[in-house]
Design the sequence.
């Protein structure tokens, strides 16, 4: 009987459990009965504590600029990468396929995996790097996987390579929509520019002129400074008392489903798992007009779509739902 294919799944953001990390955990669960899985990370973090429950997890410690999980671009990072490739090559010695999440994991582990003889799958969740970096990552990959047609088209435009679309599993909500008596909005998002949370704060300032409404934000940034900066903007806009930051929550849906409506003000999304789960929970949703949401935000009775970076339009749509959430 032939031995199972050996797959190493690699992520370079071990401090968080955002959408890409949850897809990695789902992949381990789905693949475990058919292939031999292991995990490679640059630190333990929240993700490492989770993966260690399901698969052997190897930590190749990153230090210096490579331990700044905000990014990996720039001359200092490029100079540090060759030594890290040498350090991480041993993690791929008995691996047939290396599954690398996003640009950071590809740049940190792609060359080491190829040098060890593994075939490389690049799983793209977010296209936030310069196109030149996209092309470098595409050259390192034997195959590219994306979560939606929208991302696949953009990958092809940037790199000339056709990607395989494999949507992530939409998690079932653990609670159904049951709004309380107060007017509340809820968002699940890491604190990052791509999530448009600053736009939401401007819209909230507009809303507060007519409605006594609060906003629950579930998610964290790279560091506590990210949350502090968002709170500073809320203070300047006069809405700090209306913002409740919950940070990372293992199960956010009991909090979210008590809100009047769900809002996703993102500038960039690849699949929008939180939006899809909110709709499954029966919640009314306001989201930006991104391709990642196009196939689910089709019913104006339950979902309103607004342009990206337009807080006035966002406030108008939210006001409509707050006045008549059903």
Sequence:
């Amino acid at each position: 009987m032939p031995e199972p294919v050996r797959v190493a799944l690699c992520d370079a953001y071990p401090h968080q459990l955002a959408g890409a990390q949850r897809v990695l955990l789902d992949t381990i669960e789905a693949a475990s009965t058919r292939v031999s899985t292991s995990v490679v990370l640059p630190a333990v973090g929240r993700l490492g504590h989770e993966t260690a429950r399901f698969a052997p997890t190897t930590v190749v410690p990153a230090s210096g600029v490579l331990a700044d999980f905000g990014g990996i671009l720039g001359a200092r990072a490029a100079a540090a990468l060759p030594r890290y490739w040498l350090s991480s090559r041993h993690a791929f010695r008995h691996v047939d396929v290396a599954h690398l999440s996003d640009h950071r994991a590809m740049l940190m582990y792609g060359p080491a995996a190829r040098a060890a003889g593994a075939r490389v799958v690049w799983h793209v969740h977010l296209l936030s790097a310069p196109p030149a970096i996209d092309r470098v990552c595409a050259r390192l990959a034997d195959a590219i996987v994306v979560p939606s047609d929208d991302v696949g088209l953009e990958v092809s435009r940037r790199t000339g390579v056709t990607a395989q679309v494999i949507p992530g599993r939409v998690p079932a909500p653990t609670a159904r929509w049951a709004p309380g008596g107060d007017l509340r909005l809820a968002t699940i998002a890491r604190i990052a520019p791509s999530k448009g949370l600053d736009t939401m704060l401007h819209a909230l300032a507009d809303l507060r002129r007519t409605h006594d409404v609060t906003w629950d934000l579930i998610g964290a940034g790279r560091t506590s400074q990210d949350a502090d900066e968002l709170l500073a903007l809320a203070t300047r806009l006069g809405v700090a008392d209306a913002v409740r930051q919950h940070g990372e929550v293992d199960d956010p849906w009991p909090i979210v489903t008590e809100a009047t409506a769900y809002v996703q003000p993102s500038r960039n999304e690849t699949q929008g798992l939180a939006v899809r789960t909110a709709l499954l929970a029966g919640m009314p949703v306001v989201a930006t007009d991104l391709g990642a949401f196009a196939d689910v935000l089709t019913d104006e009775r339950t979902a309103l779509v607004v342009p990206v970076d337009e807080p006035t339009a966002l406030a108008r749509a939210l006001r409509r739902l707050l006045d008549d959430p059903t």
In short: The two ends are 58 Å apart (CA to CA). The mean pLDDT is 89. Residues 14 and 49 are 9 Å apart (CA to CA). The longest strand covers residues 36-41.
